[in-house]
User: What shape does this take?
Amino acid sequence: MTDWFLNGDYGTVPTNYPALIISVLLAFVCGHVIAWTYMFTHTGLSYSRSYVNSLILMPVIVALVMMILANNLVLAFGLMGIFAMVRFRSTLRDPLDTTYVLSVIVVGLACGTLKFTSAIAGCLAMSGIMVYLRMTSFGTRYRYDVILNVQWMRPALELPELLRLLQRHCRAIQCASQRSNDGFDGMDLSYRLLLRDPARSHEMMEEVRTFTGVARVTSLQAEDESEL
Assistant: This one.
């Protein structure tokens, strides 16, 4: 069984198994570094955990593709045709869904070019990485616990009084939006709050509701920033 596995590639170019293992591992590590950098530097609202996961998987997939193609121009053109056909026939909104599609294409390409060992090794490697990303929830960022929306009816100069109330319950406060109502008194405020004790969030909500100048209060629990 071991001999068959080690000699299971029947392509035109023999497979360098040590190079295959090193390239996959190096692609996995480099993808991690890039994903961590993206998580650290991202500041927008469109953060996606699926996109972060795809940053790890894509280098591994590309490394496997290059090992399977082995400078074969005919296979390269065939692969481009497969990608074009899949892109034309389906619309994938999730980056991770696209990664799964690319994974099965690469495995099928390896099987079709008689590189059976590469197909098995690539399938196990990509499946293992996907399970690892799922089990560790890699890419999830916890930056706040609650999104608090408030309609403030007092002058803007008196907002520090409301902030002092929130500071008693929160470790961090970020004003996400501040909008004045045209033709009406007051303004709409939206805060991202990192609570000192999330289990006591109801106490903060009761204090805000009864605070002078607050006309309306709504809140939204935010367990992570994914797919905002």
In short: The chain has a mean pLDDT of 80.
